[in-house]
Amino acid sequence: MTERVLAGVMASPGIALGAVRHLDAAGKIDGTVLDSDARPQAAAQALEALAQSAHELEELAVRLRADGRIEEADILDAGTMMAEDPVLIEAVEGAVLERGLTARSAILSEVESVAAQLDALGDPELAARAADVRSLARRASRLASGASGRSEQRNGDLVLVAPDLGPADVIELDGDVRAIALAVGGVTGHAAIVARGLGLPMVVGLGPDVLSLEDGEVCIVDGDRGIAVASPDRERTEAARRAIAARREGRARAMASRTAPTVTRDGRSVRVLANAATATEVRDALEAGADGVGLFRTELGFLEARHWPTVAEHRRILDPALKQLRGLTATVRLLDFGGDKTPPFLKGVHGRGVELLLEDAAALSAQLAAIIEAGSATELRVLIPMVTEPGQVRAVRAAIEPIAATSGSRVPLVAAMVEVPAAAVMADRIAPEVGMFSIGTNDLTSFQLGIDRTRPGGAPAHHPAVLRLIAKTVDAARAAGIPVEVCGEAASNRIVMPLLVGLGVDELSVGAAAVAEVRAWVRALDYEQAAAIARRALDAESAAEVESLERPLRVLLDDAG
Ligand code: PEP
Ligand code: MG
After folding, report:
1. Which residues line the pocket of ligand 1, CB cutoff 6 A?
2. How far is the CA of 278 from the centre of ligand 2 (A)?
3. What confidence tens digit (pLDDT) does each residue in 418-463 have?
4. What's the rounded Cα separation, in Å, for the pair 549 and 434?
5. Active site residue: 219, 314, 463, 487, which one?
6. Does the CA dihedral 431-432-433-437 come out positive or negative?
7. How many helices and strands in the chain, by DSSP H and E?
C-alpha cells in the first residue's frame, strides 16, 4: 500500500508508530423489529446495560479520584448521570417496547439523538460533550450485546483510530495503545486533556480519510507536527523508529540524572518546575526532578462548572496536589476562564482571566482562601492570569491580605502572567507590584503574531517580535529585582528554550513529561554563548533567521537527549 500523509491538528505531543486499530464501534443500528413477546426482555436488557454502564463509570471515577485525577473523574460523573437520566431511560425503554428495536439499537438510537442535539448547537464545547455521550452509547451497547464494557484491543503497538473519543475511552486504553488519531475531535476536548496527561501522542481533525485506513495497517502518529502517516515508506518508518528510540533513550538518560543540579556549563542556575492541573502530574514531575510547580492551571478542573467554584470545591482539586509540595514552590494560577476555557455558567460572558474574577469579589475570595489554606506548607505563589495593567495586581493583593490575616497565614508571593503583549509593554509598571513574572508564551505568541494558538504546528515563539517582548519583560524584572519564569510550551521547545536561557529567564516551567529532558538541556548549555546568540536574535527579521542563528545551541541540546 502506498504512503498517505493525513494532516490534522496536534492535540498531544510525541511520536509513535503502530498498527491501526479502529475503536470497536459497537455496531450500527440494525433494522431488526422484535416480536412483541421478545420486547419486555430486550427492554430489561437495555436498561440493565445502562445501569451497568453507570456502575462501571462510577467505579472508574472512584479509582481516578483516589489517584488524584479529579478532573477526569468529574468528566466520568457526567457520563454516569447521563446513563441514569430518567428521560433517557424512558426513551430507550420506549424504543424497544413501542418500536421493537433491539436493546443495542435502542441505546444507540436514543443516545445518538441526544448527541446530535448537542452537535446541532454548533458550539465546540458542546460538541466535545457529544463525544462523551457517544462514548456512553458505545459502552452501553457493548454491554447490551453481552460483551464487556471495555473496547476490545489486540496485542502489539496500536494506533487507535476513531471518529471521536470520550475521556472514558482514553482512560481505559490498554498499555498497547501508543497513539490516537481522530477524524474529528478538538484540542480542548476532554479526550485530548486525558491523552496529554497519559503522555500519548494524539492528532485530531484528520478528516474522514483516517476512518478508511485498514485495521492492522501501519501508521505513524506525529503529535508534534499534527500529522498521521499511513503505510509509511521505509525511510519514513526508519526515521520514526529513530525518533522514538532517541526520545526513549533521552528520557532514560535524563531520568538517571534527575538529582543533578540544573546549572549551565558556565555556572548559571536555571530552575526547572512543572506545569500541572492534577495531583498525578505533580507526582510525575517530582519523580522527574522538578523543583516544584511553576504553573498549576486551576480552571481545567472546572470546565464543566455550573457556578463559581466554592472554597470546598477548590480544596478538592488543590489538596491532593499541594500536599505533595511541602516546602517546595507551588505556583497556583487563579482561574483563567474565558475563550476556549469557558464553563457553562459563563456562556455569553465576555472577558478573560483576572478581568472576570475581579467582577466577582466572592468568587475571587473563595479561590484565594482555598489556595492560602491548601498551600500553607508550601512556598506559595498566587499567579494572576491575563494581566494587562498594574491596577489588577493591586486589586488581587488587596483581596489577599485580609484573607491571609484571618487564617493567620503568611501572605503568599503574588506573580503576574505576562501573556498579553500589553503586559510586556507595561512590564516596568507592573514589576514593582509583584514578586515574580511568569511569561505565558502560548498566548503571548498568538496575540503578538495574530496566529491562532491551536493552528497545526502552533505559532513560533522564537519570532523576534515575541523575543523582544520577553527581553523587555526580563529587563523590567531585573530593574525591580524579581525573578522571571516562562511557563508556556516554549520552555520545553528545543528551538526556543536556549534563547530563553540566553535572554536571562530564571525559571522554566514545563509539562511533567518534559521535566527530566529540560533539566538535561540546561546542563548542556553555555549561558554566555546563549546570551550572545539571543542578543543577535533580537535584531533578526524573522523566525527563520532566528532558527539559523540558534542552531549551535540546538546541537548542544540534541547531544543532551
Ligand atoms: C500561556 O498562555 O502560555 C500559558 C501558560 O497559559 P495557558 O496555556 O494556560 O493559556
Ligand atoms: Mg495563557
Report:
1. 295, 297, 336, 419, 440-443, 487-488
2. 18
3. 999 999 999 999 999 999 999 999 899 999 999 876 554 557 899 9
4. 34
5. 487
6. positive
7. 22, 16
